[in-house]
## 1
Amino acid sequence: MDVRSVQRTRPARRVATPEERGAWRQGIAVAVATGAYGVSFGALSVLAGLDVWQTCVLSLLMFTGGSQFAFVGVIASGGLAAAPAAIGSAVLLGLRNVAYAVRMNPIVGLSWWHRIAAAQFTIDESTAVALAHTEPRARRIGFWVTGIGIYLGWNVTTLAGALLGDVLGDVRAYGLDAAAAAAFLALLWPRLRSRQAVAVGVAAAIVAASLTPWLMPGLPVMIAALVALVVGWFNWLGARGVSGGPAGEERR
């Protein structure tokens, strides 16, 4: 058979689109910034009274930063007797991932094993990177690269923080929490293009910040999410029809 005819029948190699390449870059950048924050969790967990293997198991199985910090925070203040309250706080914070899972279900892949595997990686950052894109494949790339990248980095740095906690001192002084928040804000900022999005973000932030000193961890986040749903449902400050025109056309 002619070599040239074989080459002609061979399927062309698919070239990644600019948005897909952007999803790779964003996913890796967010994974590096957020994964580094695991050092803080590892050190604080050991200081709260958990040993190294307990700390690592939490990151391997729970893998949701807010819930993990809430858990060790309650343990630190009340000891093992506070374990039920710690579990309750962690569960409340983790409930937001259920809402993420509903949104990510059609994005992560069509097979059942894709959806089962995605449950472990459905977190704030993977959801944010995925939804920052419009192409289905770019969204899928953003989700998996971010989720798996953070999972690997978070567990490695958790172990490092647990082992080196005494050497590192007060890990909060390194500002790693600010790095993770900055990466998340960088993803959110381009989406704040309409009054509706700004209204939802501002309302939810005010509610969460106001309630945090008074309620147990997790509840402010859930209440802020409800506020965001109400604002979105009633479309406050959002696009409205103009002079009987179609809805979604914003007044200018």
## 2
Amino acid sequence: MTGFFTLFKKEILRFWRVGIQTVAAPMLTALLYQLIFSHAVGRYVEALPNVPYHAFLIPGLAMMSMTQNAFANASSSLIQSRITGNLVFILLPPISTPAFFSAYVGASVVRGLLVGAGVVAVTAPFGLPMPHNTAWILVFALLGCMIMGMLGLLAGIVAEKFDQLAVFQNFLIMPLTFLSGVFYSINSLPEFWRGVSHLNPVFYMIDGFRYGFFGVSDTSPWLSFGVVGGFTIGLAVLVLGILKSGWKLRS
């Protein structure tokens, strides 16, 4: 536990010392999205029944910001440690694989939740109603950040330089988040693209998270919970297995 708490504290301080960049900047970006999209199309679109578009946007923007920053936290930390050569000082102490895994993913969750709470706070004046079910909001926020934190850890293990890490961000994380119903309801899509959207795990994160605010969603919240929960467990098993094998991390 000493190793876990030490590494966890180190990862928290790493992003908190540049909080303007790691926490405040994503909040500003989400606020700009809210201003532009609600002004440009808000008066013409009703994405969910009885939910104004400017309110519909807020949970999607919050979850998108949380997931992107949770991924960035673990991946950037690990790749920086590998490139600068100080990863050896993390691997030499007797820190167990579960402690190593939990510290990186836990710090990613903390950063994601801080960003998500900040995004909700700055966009709530646009007309966010009282939450329909706070438990659903917390569950999907936590699971969404865990998934992206684990994906970030996996990317940091596989990538050997920033160019390779950018491949994950530009060709996996960015498309998954932007094509997951952040700015639209998937029920407005043609049947083929609606089916494709149902293969995107980030869609279920956002849809379940949005259900917690409004009580309505594009799909059943229990289905979203099952998909997101199953994805969390499967990804945890995969990443822990890779860490235990020491694949590429100690090279």
## 3
Amino acid sequence: MRAVLLGPPGAGKGTQAARLTERFGVPAISTGDIFRANVKGGTPLGVKAQEYMNAGQLVPDEVTNAMVRARLAEDDAAQGFLLDGYPRNPEQAVELDSMLADLGVELDVAIEITADFDEVTVRLLKRAEIEGRADDTEPVIRKRLEVYATSTAPLTAFYAGRGLLVQVDGLGEIDEVTERLVAAVAR
């Protein structure tokens, strides 16, 4: 399975990516995890990424693309992967196509987890409290959702136009959502 997982922040992409990768035996590749590792390590890239994340903005494409290209070239992604949080816009999707062409493979499916923005705001505020995540304050969450709506949501049209998009309701019990996702991938 070579897939991208789309949806607004807080829709459950990280939780479901972990479950899907276990089920299908492929690595989950999360740009959020890559960014946080760089921030924690204090790398120059991490410092720059932190500035954008703290402001509720997306890290620039050229930085993100380079990190994803390097990750997809690693051995564990050769048989498949699930991208969580990438691509975020049609330009990144075109770049992903180029990366995959260089590797001699194609994307199998784009899965969009749909969720109400008010519900995901509540989820993210709970996560911030539990995990102590500085990037999950209410104003930053609202900004991230606004950025998602204007910049990332057009990916649904991009992938729908290519016949790769499946949409899955992200509200409900975690196990229910997982089963919806597995059924969508098996389509």
